[in-house]
Inverse folding.
């Protein structure tokens, strides 16, 4: 078998060779003038002068107004352009450089945003929500235009919150003389559609049912009363700023666990006898999950001329979703500008929080039970003509950013030692 196979192979090879020798030659292609293409000589290429590559120059950033960081490197910011319009910025290097990612399809003078993480955001024009809502999931590289927010007639502005890519809500209001009608709308499809939350007034607060449209609540804003909403609960915290120098002696709270259909009234005890309790200014509560939350109260004491003499800040904690609250009796933070806003405290976790206190920054690592005063190279007291800290944004107990301003420009600083020292960042906007 082996020899026969060799013979067949040799025979086959010989036949193939003979066939190749007897086959006619392959035709040669010619061009239009009859010259074989194999002999055509191409002319030498003429060098082409290309225009020089121009690398756009990064522009310095001076109008920073807000910042939301989600990691050591990634986050968002808002800034004011020289023409007073705002721009949305994104960073991937911890705030050293920024890219203008303002959605081109969204006409806006004053951008407002909800940031879910370092990649996802929803953006709209605060002054004209009817211009539309833009959404990105890639850090602002591409945007999807969504229908405009259904803000009712005579209501203005909105504040959006998303807890994931599908579920969120926005708050809107109709301000009046020392009061406002407040309403909430929810979405479960990422902002494609919205439904109004039908809030009932607490039974002992009939004046709250006087909203312009059903389902909204009429709140005393000059009292510093505030309302908190999430998909699990609604809370109303009552202030008495409209009665300066008149001690209230109580800390009333109303809470609803069924989206404002029914209410439970709470009376929180004062944490200690040494409080400057002539007026109470509650902050909005912060919840970290279904059960854990912190509620902050500012206390004000006046002098004989009803000028503010001293301010103090006290924390309450809940472990059952807001149905009960317990104060930290021995924890009082002095010299906090409690009149500034209802979001004066920067919460990082149930244990870690930062708040400006006088010229300095105060920090807690145990949920507000004890506080440390941090003496640093930044000034935390607003003063005309001087640079001071507008806000801080921490992502951990050690790493945070601060925006300072002299009334015109916004400058960004970073700390990696919990606020003891701050380094100025030389900001630029990449083209």
């Amino acid at each position: 078998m082996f020899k026969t196979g060799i013979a067949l192979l040799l025979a086959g090879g010989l036949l193939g060779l003979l066939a190749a020798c007897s086959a006619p030659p392959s035709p040669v292609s010619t061009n239009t003038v009859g010259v074989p293409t194999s002999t055509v000589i191409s002319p030498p290429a003429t060098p082409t002068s290309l225009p020089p590559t121009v690398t756009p120059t990064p522009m310095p950033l001076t109008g920073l107004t807000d910042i939301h960081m989600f990691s050591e490197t990634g986050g968002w910011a808002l800034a004011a352009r020289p023409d007073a319009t705002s721009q949305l910025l994104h960073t991937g290097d911890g705030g050293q450089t920024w890219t203008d990612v303002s959605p081109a399809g969204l006409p806006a003078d004053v951008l407002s945003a909800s940031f879910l993480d370092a990649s996802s955001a929803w953006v709209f024009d605060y002054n004209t929500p009817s211009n539309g809502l833009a959404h990105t999931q890639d850090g602002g590289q591409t945007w999807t235009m969504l229908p405009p927010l259904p803000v009712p007639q005579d209501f203005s502005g909105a504040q959006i919150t998303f807890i994931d890519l599908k579920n969120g809500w926005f708050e809107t209001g109709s301000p009046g003389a020392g009061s406002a009608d407040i309403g909430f709308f929810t979405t479960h499809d990422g902002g494609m559609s919205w439904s109004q939350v039908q809030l009932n007034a607490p039974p002992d607060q009939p004046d709250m049912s006087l909203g312009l449209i059903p389902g909204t609540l009429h709140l005393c804003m000059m009292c510093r009363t505030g309302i908190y909403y999430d998909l699990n609960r609604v809370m109303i915290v009552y202030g008495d700023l409209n009665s300066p120098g008149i001690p209230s002696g109580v800390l009333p709270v109303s809470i609803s666990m069924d989206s404002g259909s029914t209410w439970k009234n709470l009376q929180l005890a004062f944490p200690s006898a040494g409080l400057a309790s002539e007026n109470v200014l509650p902050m909005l509560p912060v919840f970290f999950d279904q059960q854990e939350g912190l509620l902050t109260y500012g206390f004000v004491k006046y002098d004989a001329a009803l000028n503010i003499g001293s301010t103090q800040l006290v924390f309450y904690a809940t472990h059952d979703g807001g149905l009960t609250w317990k104060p930290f009796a021995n924890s009082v933070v002095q010299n906090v500008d409690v009149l500034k806003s209802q979001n004066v405290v920067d919460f990082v976790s149930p244990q870690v929080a930062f708040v400006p206190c006088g010229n300095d920054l105060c920090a807690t690592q145990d949920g507000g039970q004890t506080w440390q005063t941090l003496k640093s190279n930044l000034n935390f007291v607003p003063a005309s003509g001087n640079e001071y800290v507008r806000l801080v944004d921490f992502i951990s107990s050690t790493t945070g950013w601060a925006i300072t301003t002299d009334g015109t420009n916004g400058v960004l600083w970073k700390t990696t030692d919990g606020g003891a020292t701050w380094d100025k960042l030389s900001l630029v906007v990449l083209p």
Observations:
- Confidence is low (pLDDT under 50) at residues 1-42.
- Residues 59-273+382-430 form a domain with the Neuraminidase fold (CATH 2.120.10).
